[in-house]
Amino acid sequence: MERIEQHASFGGSQEVWRFHSDALGATARFGVYLPPAALRGDRCPVLYWLSGLTCTEQNFITKANVQAHAAQHGLIVVAPDTSPRGDGVADDPAYDLGQGAGFYVNATQAPWAPHYRMQDHVAEELPALVEARFPATDRRAVSGHSMGGHGALVTALRHPGRYRSVSAFSPIVAPSQVPWGRKALAAYLGPDPAAWAEWDAVELLKTARERLPLLVDQGEADEFLARELRPDLLEAACAATGHPLTLRRQPGYDHSYYFIASFLGEHVAHHAAALRG
Ligand SMILES: N[C@@H](CCC(=O)N[C@@H](CSC=O)C(=O)NCC(=O)O)C(=O)O
């Protein structure tokens, strides 16, 4: 494991590390922010952030101003890449499949299956590594944006008891029902939609064993709202199952990091409260 970036930030340390990921069968990078409390030697809870299509570990750590909020609340923040990468890793020329578009699933289909095990990477491998190698507790929260919002919801729903809180910005809530999701799930999991249900938040809500409250922010001027994101489907699924949901529709905001940065402080405060309890 090798540290390849280190920057002082808000009294803490923003770092990027690379290591050989057994889950991905490839070299993987992740960003980690260590707040001042962690540098003083305190063990801190961890917020995992899952980014969207075309992102690397860099987008969130350079655009969202997360360090200011994490420093204030004493949270470690971990930001993985969005797929396995490398010359020997399958790819596709389109921006919404292959490298940069792992969709946080464990692929079962060729040519993706050997490396595209992002769910194992973010839900198993990284927490084990972070809790062993950094001053981290096993109190975890998960959040993300768009494809990563889908990743956050699905990861929390698939692992009852593992996360104290979950939130999302502009998530793809029902990948089985929208073009981005249908394309990716068909490629990674095969053409049978029955295999997609365990990677679809709206489907997982029907049988959830834990009713962890969901906090979701969605911009009303988001260019992907009606075609890809469909918060109405999440609202209906939560109403049907009695799952607690706070869905905030934010007038005038688009799909960008300007939107994320505007409300990230409220999400970090929400996670910090859950992680303290
Ligand atoms: N066609 C666009 C789509 C890419 C895009 O908008 N990516 C978003 C996430 S979308 C859903 O997962 C993003 O976070 N981009 C990175 C950023 O820093 O804004 C394109 O290819 O640009």
Automatic annotation (TrEMBL):
Active site residues of this protein: S146, D222, H255
Protein's GO biological process: formaldehyde catabolic process
Gene Ontology MF, one: S-formylglutathione hydrolase activity
Protein keywords: Hydrolase, Serine esterase
Reaction(s) catalysed by this chain's protein: S-formylglutathione + H2O = formate + glutathione + H(+)
Hydrolase found in the keyword field: yes
Gene Ontology cellular component terms for the protein in this record: cytosol
E.C. number: 3.1.2.12
Keyword flag Hydrolase: yes
Superkingdom of origin organism: Bacteria
Enzyme kind, highest EC tier: hydrolase
Pfam families linked to this entry: Esterase (PF00756)
Cited InterPro entries: AB_hydrolase_fold (IPR029058), Esterase-like (IPR000801), S-formylglutathione_hydrol (IPR014186)
UniProt record similarity statement: Belongs to the esterase D family.
NCBIfam families tied to this protein: fghA_ester_D
Function: Serine hydrolase involved in the detoxification of formaldehyde.
Protein name: S-formylglutathione hydrolase
Source organism of this protein record: Piscinibacter sakaiensis
